[in-house]
Amino acid sequence: MTDQFPDSDPAAPDFPPPPIEQQQRMVEAILFAAATPVSVRELADRLPHGCDPAEAIRGLRSLYQGRGVTLERIGDGYAFRTAADLGFLMQTETVEQRKLSRAAIETLAIIAYHQPVTRTEIEEIRGVAVSRGTLDQLIELEWVRMGRRRMTPGRPATFVVTETFLDHFGLESARDLPGLSELRAAGLLESRPPTETGIPMAEPDDEDEGDPGIPAEDLFEDE
Amino acid sequence: MTDQFPDSDPAAPDFPPPPIEQQQRMVEAILFAAATPVSVRELADRLPHGCDPAEAIRGLRSLYQGRGVTLERIGDGYAFRTAADLGFLMQTETVEQRKLSRAAIETLAIIAYHQPVTRTEIEEIRGVAVSRGTLDQLIELEWVRMGRRRMTPGRPATFVVTETFLDHFGLESARDLPGLSELRAAGLLESRPPTETGIPMAEPDDEDEGDPGIPAEDLFEDE
Amino acid sequence: MPKPVDVPYLKPVPDASPDDARGAGTHDANAVAQRRAEEALIVDVDGFEGPLDLLLTLARTQKVDLMKISVLHLAEQYLVFVEQARKLRIELAADYLVMAAWLAFLKSRLLLPPDPEAEGPSAEEMAAHLAFQLERLDAMRQVAARLMGRDRLGLNRFQRGAPETVSRKRRTEWQAGLIDLMRAYARLKTRDEFRPYAFDRRDIYSMEQALDRLRQLVGFAGDWTDLSDFLPDGWDVHGSRRRSATAATFAASLELARQGTLEIRQDDTFSPITIRRKPT
């Protein structure tokens, strides 16, 4: 607590970086203080010049192995999260989860496993139109965001999952989605043009209304 | 993540309490996730029956000793806090560049050209009072400092420019400051008064004011 | 009306369903439940997320791997379902009917010997693709369930409850260059040069002042009096002040003589000038 680092001013590039133990303390402090994952790049920006946040993280991860809080990798970032097996102690902290509709859960899974994926592709997989509300809900949860437009006629928007999604579901990256490799091996993630075989698609003319089967009030069933 | 504690259900008082390491993990997780400091009593309520949160806290406090975050007692409760010496990491600094005010730059110029100079002398030259704030700002910038007191009635303080000033303005010494004639030659005194009116120029024959040729011996009387 | 055993998905709507498709305008839950119990058969088509979902559910009844599903049998199951719904005067959404028509077409193609002249995909290819779609939808359902069953943030894993905010400090870096400094000094030094011209009047005795004074004094001076006696106190000693006062007083006396108020006399060159009030 009484340590002072004369060389810890990020604006002083000429000082040698602090020893790795100090760097580890600094990374620990920054990650502990943040509610959302912090990327290695952000860490480097906030640490004194010359620090190696990736190395500090390696040390911290092993240090926190098996502890009540663990250092998780989430997308590009890192965050401390309480160990999953201790969730039962957290009744007071448990966040009321709005129960997602079946349509929303399926749509989310399709986006996660097929990303980047267009709305038409989602509809082709589910066999029904995707209601505007379903996508809106996923976007509002910050689990899904718009990706790049597809370079096909009409330049349709694509959807991808976010870092918040990874964080929520405890995934290091979208590559770690459960069963992803099996699905890929089974050829179930390949998109085939739907017109090829002429299977009818339930595609209402009214895109935004869509999905007459899911009344909007059904989106959030009470838990 | 795979640990399971069959004995960790707080509602099952007949099971023996989990080992102290587990209790420590539990307390660690609870304190991490809590929005406010948690008291030993609250911990005891949330932990499985028979746990000793005070003991777990002792263990955790020594575990976090000297780390980037420390376990601190706050009132009745305990909470993780960033180590005091790392507080600087919790700030990001944005640097805003602003021009010095006219009053400040004029005052600075007078001090640079006339040092050591008293406040009254500065005011005489500027023709207006010098606000305390202006001098304070220059002193805070470390461009100006107090010199020796003048050996005149009242022993007024004098002001001189500093090494930092010379550094910032790229001068080897205040003697390098260009004189009025040089300023004029440099086109800095464009609006030269019409000479045909015979109005006398501020020229060296005026003892007090004169100074394109600052008497050199006057400059660093103090150094 | 017997309950159709072979079409398990045509089932009474649960009492709690808020979606009163039959148009019972009452909110009395008991009355609704009673009437529904009497009518007994309302199809829960809304429970399906479209025809593909219904097909997938029907396919499960075949109790085989989806890869080995009999699409022909599935098509028949679907058509029976739609027929049943029609008998029960249940209005199916258009896409269910479109699917029914397509499956009837597929069924006929599957039953007939292949037509080498036919364009487009073969019946087997169409059936295979349908099986693929069902399998893919099924796979998505399964991974969705696995996803939702993970250790989720806010349910099993928790973030720091009291995150420490990063304060953004603003530091101002004051900028001034040598040129600013020199310009400021130049401005100060040249400001004096532009001060409006003002003559130093400290030692100047104006003709107006002399006129005023003479007008007052000359009334008492009936006799010839030396001009120098009219100089004001303090102006008759020091050189420059005396010169100024003398000149002004002399000029004033000339003016008053011109006006006919007084007379001036000088006996000789450089001899004293004397004045007196002009006798009337």
Automatic annotation (TrEMBL), chains A, B:
Keyword Cell division listed: yes
Which residues lie within the region annotated Disordered?
1-20, 186-223
What segments bear the compositional bias annotation Low complexity? Answer: 1-12
Any one of the GO BP annotations: chromosome separation
What keywords are assigned to this protein? Cell cycle, Cell division, Chromosome partition, Cytoplasm
What SUPFAM superfamilies does the entry give?
Winged helix' DNA-binding domain
Q: What is this protein called?
A: Condensin subunit ScpB
* Species annotation: Paracoccus homiensis
Automatic annotation (TrEMBL), chain C:
* Transmembrane domains' residue ranges: none
- For this entry, the protein name equals Segregation and condensation protein A
Species the sequence originates in: Paracoccus homiensis
Top-level taxon of the source organism: Bacteria
Report residue spans for region: Disordered: 1-30
Alphabetical list of Pfam families matching this protein: SMC_ScpA
- Per its UniProt record, what InterPro entries does this chain match? ScpA
